[in-house]
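does this look right to u?? zinc ion version
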Amino acid sequence: MHIEHLSLTNFRNYARLEWTLPKGTTVIHGANAQGKTSLLEAIYYLATSRSPYTTSDRQLIHWRAETDPIPYARLAAEVCTRHRPLDRIDMTLMLDTTNGDGARFKKVVKINGAEKRVMDLVGLVNVVLFLPRDLTLVEGSPSDRRGFMNDTLAQVDQDYLDALSTYDKILPQRNALLRRISDNLAAPHELDYWDSQLVKAGAVLIAGRQRFLRELEADAQKAHHDLTGKRETLTLDYQPSFTPTAGGDGQLSFNTTGLDLHRELSAEQIAPQFAEQLEAEKGEAIKRGVTLSGPHRDELRLHINGRDAGLYGSRGQARTAVMALKLAELSWMKQRIGEWPLLLLDEVIAELDASRRAYLLDRLDGATQTLMTTTELDIFTTSFLERAAVLRIVDGQIAAETP
Amino acid sequence: MSKAIPEPVIRLTEAFARLPGIGPKTAARLTYFLLRAPDEISQSLADALHDLKTETKFCSVCFNITVSDPCEICADAKRDGRVIAVVEEPLDVLAIERTGAYSGKYHVLHGAISPVNNIGPDDLRIRELVERVGQQDVLEVIIATNPGMEGDATAMYIKRELEPKGVKIQRLARGLPVGGDLEYVDSVTLTRALQGRSEF
Ligand SMILES: [Zn+2]
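got this back:
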């Protein structure tokens, strides 16, 4: 798939941009803070309705627009995929300051001119984004690794996305109720509804993650073998906060062996075990006012030759493992949607040494559309640059285009 | 606010600003509008505000807002008292009445269960509903809380409380947009949902 045209109005530092994107590889080049990253951010936002760089959507609206009575930003893209010749996606982000109690953020999504729910965006544009931050995925926090699974799965699996959004709404309600029970403001049986919903959504997430990681592992291993000359073997270790088993005698995972990825469990098999787990720890959960088990506490560990790369690996090993994982994500997505997703690489090429860089660029060869940002052009070989389109961005404008 | 502004002006502006959907700017604009407008406009507003609280009350049967107690709907002998529709807000009663497709009575909860907002079953008129079902000759309860998480949680709770009473319990939800408020659902959709309600 590829994006044919991108329009931005008041988005980050783009007051106005109309950009017809070339297919193939585009290198977006310029000094820092000129707006290179915002281009990738805009495309990622159109695909997922979420920014990888900020949790506050209102920051996406150009600061100069803030003096308007209703500051707004607009993003629009024309997208071509294998299955659909042309879709026009339109998003308007508004900061409504006219109705008191602080400004209210509003997002309006239109697909081919008709207003849709944000959920309906899913699958129209699929992207794989690679950031320097991803390079610390192995040593980083568990929530980064859950984010990796969520961001990829939610782009292609509507059931997973629905379950994730339900889970994220139920969890704070359940936690609030646990605290109310502990304060004697509510009765334990009031948990029933929230538990049943949490279990239903949570089981879909666990089953989805298990399947995703199983499908990912072979590709990740292959890329990792390529990168290490077969000296090292990468394995993925999925550790749900409790371990569902095929037999149903689930128990807490104090060990590090995690869930066997190759014995597939369905959401229907997992749900009753998750329910049992919540029941078993109810007293403790009430005492502490938090939900102790569930996909929000899952872990994903990466092992190299059987040893935990986050704990015992070198920085170089951790980076290699991440690269293998990201490349596997790309293959997985390609497999799932039946064509190349959009590739967005933000400043990440410069972070890699020459051999990893060469391997990465080689693996991306043939992609339908790749956008990569960089502050320096000389990290690329001349022959690579000859085949790519090169853009220079200065102060929210496309200043020059070569060839 | 500056001392140059007379105290009654400040007081009214602050009173407006406490209302939902009204910010300080709008509050000031409303105040200055009234200041310049003919006396009868502010007088009729003052009267209306005064009467709102002194001349309305909750119906002691269904807890809808009413002038007379019991309310007109509860007092109407032509309506079928054996069927009760349970709604979150008085405006939901209006939405269902607009369809003309319902001839039973109502019960207004005044909210929905929401632990994050510190609203539990005891903050709603659920106990009164259970008592009412036990005392009156009720055959069917239609739970018409809003579709979505909080409305569902409330519906589940009510179902559990009413089950021992042996009444038919139905949920009005099918075909309604999830997350939407009943009061904004158009009459055609709501009528269809009323006809296609299902036991749960
Ligand atoms: Zn009444």
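The two ends of chain B are 56 Å apart (CA to CA). idk if thats expected tbh
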